[in-house]
From TrEMBL:
CDD domains: SLC-NCS1sbd_CobB-like (cd11484)
Pfam families: Transp_cyt_pur
Sequence similarity: Belongs to the purine-cytosine permease (2.A.39) family.
Ranges that cross the membrane: 37-57, 63-83, 104-124, 136-157, 169-189, 209-228, 240-267, 287-314, 326-351, 357-377, 398-417, 423-444
GO CC entries: plasma membrane
Keyword Transport: yes
Protein name: Purine-cytosine permease
GO MF assignments: cytosine transmembrane transporter activity
Chief location of this protein within or outside the cell: membrane
Topology with respect to the bilayer: Multi-pass membrane protein
Length: 457
């Protein structure tokens, strides 16, 4: 794909209309959703105290990276994948762009599947359809996937402005629903019972594994950071608001998923991580049809961000493709991917495999982008060069092979470290892999720079 030399990737200050509140709402809405609730339920396998500790530590560390990427977007006015051209090269940026397209389509599918389960419960309550998992239950889930896909297409119909509107409406519904859910949970069981509940030994999750799980969930948003902060006018809107909004969203909703899953385990006498999805929990807590409708709407708020990020990444690969067209393409692809858990027969198994993939491929990319901007380039990029063939960021035939090598090394390092028993029990592999990748990229580029100077002399 040839890049137009005159193409301007940057959003100018006069075009920036996203307020601090909009940015806060976007990132609360991104995490105040079904997937975050489900993560909280999965973390119940650590026990209450350990799960909270992991959630706070891994989320706060992940969203520091979100702020760092957010600032780059604010300063340059360029999307995250557009920024990656400076480190990976114009053509090399296709690598992180493809990964971003796949992971955000995956997250859209995750939220769609959970919301489709809610539609299945709705059809059961309204029309008596069998639930998913029962004979004939596929009908309700398939109906749910199709309904959610239509809603997603409506939510992205007008591009970034409709995404902003969805977030503004969705966040109000989310806050009301979470308060309601919290009241119902603590009417069912006491906080003391939840805190003293013990995980059955066969379901126990190690701390390192839990940190990697939460990191994969949170880092997925980091590569979308600049896609939204490039529309802001204030530095704090691009750094403080994404960090604060995303952290509040993930802790609040994962906390509700955590305590709701434990409360059901206490009330029923059995713990099953497969029953951590919001629809099952809402049904068992007797929250009724209204709760299921809100779950469906919260899927729209999260997936508006997911689809926007996937569409932006696709537009980086195909610059002449309009953002609206990119959004339609990724929405259709996400619909198809949503059927994968049905084929595999287990949503939890598909979800864990997906998280492993996200954690493995994203960490090294984020490290390369951050080290390149803040350390190697001292916080400044030549914006016109980002779309210029044979310019400053062309490297070798449009690809910085040292960045690609760093990414490959990071993937291998993560794969090896994730199988280390000590790390599995303690800190996990994700953040160590990111540190190693960042240091490796810096020194590879430094050695290359020295080599070039020697050859010139």
């Amino acid at each position: 794909m040839n890049h137009d030399n005159e193409q301007d990737l940057s959003i100018k200050p006069a075009q920036r209309r996203t307020s601090s509140w909009d940015m806060f709402a976007t990132w609360v809405g991104a995490n105040a959703n079904n997937g975050t609730w489900y993560i909280g339920g999965v973390l119940a396998a650590c026990g209450f105290a350990a799960a909270l500790g992991v959630l706070l530590f891994s989320s706060a560390l992940s969203y520091l990276f979100l702020s760092l990427i957010g600032f780059i977007g604010f300063k340059t006015g360029v999307s995250t994948m557009g920024i990656s051209r400076a480190s990976f090269g114009l053509r090399g940026s296709y690598l992180p762009s493809i990964i971003n397209v796949t992971q955000f389509i995956g997250w859209t599918a995750v939220n769609t599947y959970i919301a489709a389960t809610s539609v299945s419960y709705l059809m059961h309550d309204i029309a008596g359809w069998p639930l998913y998992g029962q004979p004939g239950g596929n009908k309700g889930l398939i109906c749910g996937i199709l309904v959610m896909s239509v809603l997603h297409i409506i939510s992205i119909a007008s591009g970034s402005r409709s995404v902003q509107l969805i977030e503004r409406i969705g966040i109000v519904l989310v806050f009301i629903f979470v308060l309601w859910e919290s009241i119902v949970v603590f009417q069912t069981v006491s906080l003391h019972e939840i805190m003293t509940w013990h995980v059955p030994a066969k379901f126990k999750m190690n701390t390192g594994t839990a940190i990697d799980t939460v990191a994969a969930f949170n880092l997925a948003w980091v590569t979308a950071g600049a896609d939204f902060t490039r529309f802001t006018r204030k530095k704090t809107s691009a750094t403080v608001m994404p960090f604060t909004g995303a952290l509040i969203g993930v802790i609040w909703f994962a906390f509700i998923g955590l305590v709701a899953t434990i409360s059901i385990a206490i009330a029923s006498g059995t713990y099953d991580p497969n029953n951590s999805d919001p629809s099952t929990i809402a049904s068992r807590l007797g929250l009724g049809i209204l709760a299921l409708i809100v779950i469906i709407l919260t899927s729209m708020t999260a997936n508006a961000v997911n689809l926007m990020a996937a569409g932006s990444a696709l537009s980086n690969i195909f610059p002449r493709l309009k953002l609206k067209v990119s959004l339609w393409i990724v929405a259709i692809l996400a619909t198809l991917v949503t059927f994968v858990p049905m084929i595999l027969g287990s949503f939890l198994s598909a979800f864990i495999v997906f998280l492993d993939y996200v954690g493995m491929v994203l960490g090294p990319i984020i490290s390369v982008i951050i080290v390149d901007f803040y350390v190697r380039s001292h916080g400044h990029y030549h914006l016109k060069e980002l779309s210029k063939q044979h310019g400053a960021y062309w490297y070798k035939n449009g690809i910085n092979w040292l960045a690609v090598l760093t990414w490959i090394s990071g993937v291998v390092i993560f794969f090896v470290l994730q199988r280390n028993e000590f790390l599995e029990r303690t800190i996990g592999a994700t953040f160590i892999t990111m540190i190693i990748s960042g240091v490796l990229y810096y020194y590879l580029m430094k050695l290359n720079q020295r080599s070039v100077k020697k050859n010139v002399n």
